[in-house]
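Please describe our next protein:
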Amino acid sequence: MPDYKTPLRDIRFVRDELLGYAAHYQSLPGCTEATSDVVSAILEEGAKFCENVIAPLNRIGDLEGCTWSADGVTTPTGFKEAYRQYVEGGWPSLAHETEYGGQGLPESLAMTVNEMLATASWAWSMYPGLSHGAMSTLHAHGTPEQKAAYLSKLVSGQWTGTMCLTEAHCGSDLGLLRTKAVPQADGSYRIEGTKIFISAGEHDMAENIVHIVLARLPDAPAGTKGISLFIVPKFLPGTDDGLGERNAVNCGSLEHKMGIHGNATCVLNFDGATGFLIGPPNKGLNCMFTFMNVARLGTAMQGLAHAELAFQGAIRYARERLQMRSLSGPKAPDKPADPIIVHPDVRRMLLTMKAFAEGNRALFYYAAKLVDVVQHSQDEAQCEQADSLLAFITPIAKAFMTETGFEAANHGVQVFGGHGYIAEHGMEQNVRDSRISCLYEGTTGIQSLDLLGRKVLMSQGELLKGFTKVVHKFCQANESDAVLKEFIEPLARLNKEWGESTMKIGMAAMQDREEVGAAAVDYLMYSGYICLAYFWADMARVAAGKLAAGTAEEGFYKAKLQTARFYYQRILPRTRAHLEAMLSGADSLMDMAEADFSLGY
């Protein structure tokens, strides 16, 4: 298992040098206490906690998994103790309002710490991670009484939260859900039904679990228009700030999964459980999007985490493993063979992992910066612009970052060769853990339909234009820089092509709606590669400026330029294949009769 080392230097590069977080915090009301000294201290302490306490649990969680009995779910050795340290250190409350016991720091700072936790052990990090969306939903849609009853306990980490959406017959089509909510005389609701795939749905790490549940009222219309949202705690709140009676919600079983064994994925049975309505009746899905959007960015971070972990393990191994001689002559003549890092194909894989990890970190922290603006800006126009950019970026971040994170995890195995297939090195666990990221919180296909259908075409291209304008202004500002020419010229061409190809898909969709679904995944991946091209060009700009000015960290900035060059020459050409595919039309997908799929058996 690779020893996780927090990439603090790269985190600071992206936050401070690329995205200007220090000035960003000072420009927003409620963020000014996040001074450089405060942020630096938090990041350093977070790195120590993740490296020394959380990372050693990653392998343990995979080997032991969770166990289920009539008494509930027991988490792997060390998980509960690490959570206690996490709560005692004040980490859950970092970015929450002081009114509820939070520290009032920016959300983007908590997202940075969460990246560290996620890379150290994704399975462990999911327990506190699921609480965040529950808190966001309560804060946005809960009554004052609900906030008073639940938020302070969730903010402190004393209680955790979940999201209970889908059922066995639903998948992503939540309009099919059957869980019922029957009104009671005291204003509460009786919740009946079964939910599946509930991450952290039952565990022994906190004294209470607050479930956010989708269900139907008796008179609800069919489909998504008839869904309401409810709070259903494991234990009802008691008097004097304590716990009340045990609610009728229980774990029916644990899912046997491909990966993330350290996190309990539960079937939850609601057998007449007491629930409390959040938000207006039959508007639950609208309220739940508060939770889902937070979760989608959290899952995007998972892609970053698995790419980073794969790269860290692979680069160490590639420097140590001796095999064959370099084709251009021995590079370690005093040894029986050269380290495999000298071989071009190994470097291809290492650079791919590095380009995705560092490029996706820039994309993720850019999104985190937008979250701060939406939450704190008092400038209505600025807030609206940031919200539109975030709406556009979120499905790209979720799907593209997880797909490329999974690719990077696979490269991690490949660099190790046969040893990558052996469990003790941790690379195969990283692949298994990463695979789910492309599925939950909306599959890549669902995210792609959201991007192309809802965000781009339904806005008549306005949300796309918001981002392409950012890229266009960047290209204009740097078009005369000879050092950046190799990045600016292809980026400007792609940015123009992005708008033109979108218009072609939109015109085709006016004749046949299937064209949207046929183009969607290729469109999203195409968009993701262009987004990363923008961030790599900007990173190249910063690096080139540092090198021109003279710096003691020449190697760091030179590597940034070289990775940007690799991305443009070796990865960005993938846009050509995605462009041809997404413009090829729906006929090749839809022409075959359903019965003909199975001919030949």
In short: The chain has a mean pLDDT of 96. The CA atoms of residues 288 and 561 lie 42 Å apart. The first strand starts at residue 67 and ends at 69. The first helix runs from residue 8 to 18.
